[in-house]
Protein: Glutathione S-transferase
Amino acid sequence: MVRCHTSYVSRSVETLFPAVPEAGQKTFPKYRGESDTGNMSGKPKLHYFNGRGRMEPIRWLLAAAGVEFEESYMEEKADLTKLQKDGSLLFQQVPMVEIDGMKLVQTRAIMNYIATKYNLCGKDLKERALIDMYVEGTTDLMGMIMYLPFQPADTKEKNLALIIERATTRYFPVYEKALKDHGQDYLVGNKLSWADVHLLEAILMAEECKPDVLSAFPLLQAFKGRISNIPTIKKFLQPGSQRKPPTDEKFVAVVRKIFNI
Structure:
């Protein structure tokens, strides 16, 4: 089986949710990479906070693939500590996804597995290389947006302006040109890939920062409409789905409480 090799998380976002061992804990328990009991429903089970963070693109990818999943939310530090102590977290961090009898950690490993399993990472090495490059770009932009609510209040306006500047001068021009040069409905090849799903997620996040951010990008506007209307994605975008709302102060407070930050 050919695997995708794209990293999802930018360095700045990875440092946002560090592993936090219990006070006085000198060694970590043995990692149990395979589920002891398995998920009896057969559905992937996602372990994270009740918010976007680093789990949201995993939710997007599963939804795009038409895969139903369950979620277990951490609300107290004890919830994280339990996962750490029972050996569920290889590096003592979330997100963690139970799937196919495994307990997968590290966002890029989880995303690579899902993209490969559901044939969303291209038909050959050249397509996969393009997908990887496009996903890395949206990863950088989305990382800036995800980190924004955790920044000091007196820097948010400046950082929001930087996000808009980067989106409209560095990232979106690349995807606009890619669509023009490729001449197809999708970024790579002639079928949906992880890159398309990731770009749509990034577009919608950027529009939450500035609603008219796509005003100078007509091909991206059309792309947004096409990909949003793919049945599985359209369903995920409907109210009541497992898609999470923009990060708010409540989510920030939960994360700060659990990680003592």
